[in-house]
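Researcher: Structure prediction, please.
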Amino acid sequence: MSTPDYSWVTIARFFSPNEALFFKNILEGHDIPAFVPNEYMGHLDIRLVRAEGGVQLKVPSDRADEARALLEAPPELDAEYDEDLDEEYDEDFNEEDDEGLDGEGNEGG
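Model: Predicted structure follows.
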């Protein structure tokens, strides 16, 4: 078995496991492998988290700079994607009006 060309490095520490997992999901969404080795400690006792220096977020060493940059300035939503969401919402809202609801959310008669 060969060893990988990288090691796992801690790029951030958090007091909340939920916060660490949130950022882990952002990284994974950008195809950067990440893991939170002590994620369950924070759910047990906050003193354990503080004793360990916080909940760690780790990535492969060869992707650490890329991951740090992404966490410092998360990308903004694509304007075209945002417009598509608005159009879908408008279509869904208009369909409800067509089903017999008046402007106040009551069934029309």
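Model: Helices lie at 17-29, 41-44, 46-51, 64-72, 79-98.
Researcher: Thanks, that helps.
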